[in-house]
Amino acid sequence: MAAFAENGTYLKFSERPRSEFRSVLWPVLVHRVLYPEPRQPELNLFQRAVLGLIRANRSKQDDIAELTGLHPELITLIVAQGVSNGWLTPAADELTQKGQKLLDDEEDESTNLKAGFLLQDAITGDFWPRMVTRLEQVEAIDPQAAFPEFSIARKTGKTFKPFLARADKKNLPGLDNDLLTRAYRDYRKDHRASQQLGFMQAQSEYVQLQGVQRLDETPEAARILVWVTGDEEGDELWSVKDPFGLRENAWWLEDALRRLLESDTNLRKYLAKLIGIPDASALTNEEWLKEIQKRTELDILIEFPWVESQPDIKRYFARLLKWKRKIDSGLAWDSDLEAALADCQKLLEVVMQWLIKTYPANIGQMPKAGKPDWSLNERLLGAIGIPSFNGEVTRSLARQDLRQVIRACQNPTSSLKALLFAAGMGALSEDQHPLKVLSDEDLQIAKLLKLADLRNQGGHAQSRFNKRKTEEISQESVIDNIEYAKNFTECFKDWM
Question: What is the pLDDT of residues 100-129, one digit of tens each?
């Protein structure tokens, strides 16, 4: 087991990207090892074909020519080379041991060993699917500074100060064969893909990781400079560039970056400027909505991280953020306003459901439900002792059917008002219930009841025939209800 400890070693293997970026100093453990030097194949395609047929007891040159389509003179030349190199017996009818070994691509015992470095993530403990033959150190302007700063160009005097990612994981695993095998498999896959795509940079030297031998018992701590950009093509908010230029992105750092973002508010704020919402007129509707989605995810990460612990609440909370942004942009239709109001109520319903499940009511403490009795309900609500259940709220909730409220206590799938009543019943035997702790000023339940009535109005056809008194749904009223639903939900963040 090993642990990360700062020692002022900073490494940089690639240049800054041309697009807008943020820099992060990523913590790693550097393992110095010996590895077999990769050799170029000694056999070309034709030599391999001829030697393979000879091994299969097809040593006559006429047979080889017929089976391969090679010119007889070329076959004669290859056979002569095989004999002179010791791959074939003098009679050229059988492979020597050396020829067998060469054809099977077995390692030569005389393979040279070279020194290199394996990199272990000090956040996850995983080995990176990369290996380097040398360490490219970069000096901080002030080596003693707690937050190092580096020069961009000496001529201009411009500098940059990367974000220092926390290495919270204490006991990192050692040079484990399983971890190394996994890293090597991914490394070979990336190397092969880069060759095929023509992406690989000149300095990306292939390294044979099989047969690695440790040189130092204890690895050294270091920080590698990585570049983070906005993820323009994928579904993530940000993308980490491959620090070694083998591929475009460091896909193996995605999970680690998410882990850091969940725990580090400062990192979220540092990267936030990479995410912007372009002008809607310059995008298709689909593209614009995709950007809105990314911006919403960013808002959740930075401003409302507490909803991450409650996926159901997060889902509707995020919807309200998107509705508000769409309304603010001037691109919302009347149907969007109604949908936004519906999501306001849904968010509040989910909050009530969470309260009911977190603080279940003792059904035995509730009176037996018979015919609707508003006065009984008022006395019951008044006895709970919830500050926000004032006279107006109590009178409104008392009109709920107690039988429906009891069912909501057991299975919270009722209307918003019935759910609020049922949530309040959970406070009968719980002094620290959130509804008892939070004030009337905090919750403003009267607004919740008004929203419920407004939503109920929207659920029925309005005309001169039913003589229903309607309230016009305007952008201003919807925005106001969105803000209320958000603020109401946020009141409970300390309990989530």
Answer: 888 876 444 445 677 888 899 998 888 898
171-183 confidence digits (pLDDT tens): 787 776 777 777 7
Q: Do residues 26 and 166 touch, judged by C-beta distance below 8 A? A: no
Residue ranges of alpha helices (H) inside 22-71 are 45-55, 61-68
SS3 labels along 335-393: HHHHHHHHHHHHHHHHHHHHHHHHCCCCHHHCCCCCCCCHHHHHHHHHHHCCCCCCHHH
Residue at 39: amino acid letter: R
Residues 495 and 434: beta-carbon distance below 8 Å: yes
Give the pLDDT band of residue 38 (cuts 50, 70, 90).
Answer: low
Taking a C-beta distance cutoff of 8 angstroms, is the pair 340, 320 a contact?
yes
d(CA 490, CA 496): 10
Mean pLDDT for the chain overall? 82
Predicted local confidence at residue 108, as pLDDT:
45
- Quote the CA–CA distance of 383 and 428 in Å, as a whole number: 8
45-103: CATH class: mainly alpha
Q: Cα separation of 133 and 117, whole Å?
A: 6
Tell me, what amino acid is at 439? S
Where are the chain's structural domains? Answer: 10-38+112-272, 45-103, 280-495
